[in-house]
Amino acid sequence: MLDRLYARTLHLSASRYAPLWLALIAFAEASVFPLPPDLLLIPMVLARRDQAWRLAALCTAASICGAVAGWYIGAFLLDYIAMPVVRFYHAQATLAGLQARFREWGVWIILIKGLTPIPFKFVTIASGASHLALGPFLVACAITRGVRFFAVAALLRRFGAPVQAFIEHRLPLVAGAFAVLVVGGFIALKYV
Fold first, then answer.
1. Residue 4, exposed/middle/buried by CB under 10 A (0-12, 13-18, 19+)?
2. Which of 52, 167, 178, 192 lies most in the core, judged by the most C-beta atoms within 10 Å?
């Protein structure tokens, strides 16, 4: 089953609509969606290594736009949009903790947490709920998301064939490791 899903993802990642889907997922992940855009960015770069920089730039730009949406949700629609999402993830204490940390550490929280597997929407919503200034917020988002997505693109562009071979020969291990990272991100969000 994993092999078919992987082959289908690779096939879809080479389609002409894949960049649109990448942008939509990157936007949504920074505001409301739980899955990271790396799930599509990685196979897209593997399928089209010559487009690595363009895909990383697209992913970064869409993620920054989504971060602005998350900031506005936190700043102005916290009770109507953000709190149902926060309650769904049982993350009320996490949001309160992030708000307190934002008051103390500001953009450093964004710079650090934007590189981790912690869902970025929690960072953006908490930034808005803490009323972090939008200018420094945008700069920090551009830095952290750019570093993350361009690093992924650079590694895959440089080492794409061996990485692809590794993934294809050890797909269950890779899928399991990715699941552990995502779950670990949620756990870290709860306790860090």
1. exposed
2. 52
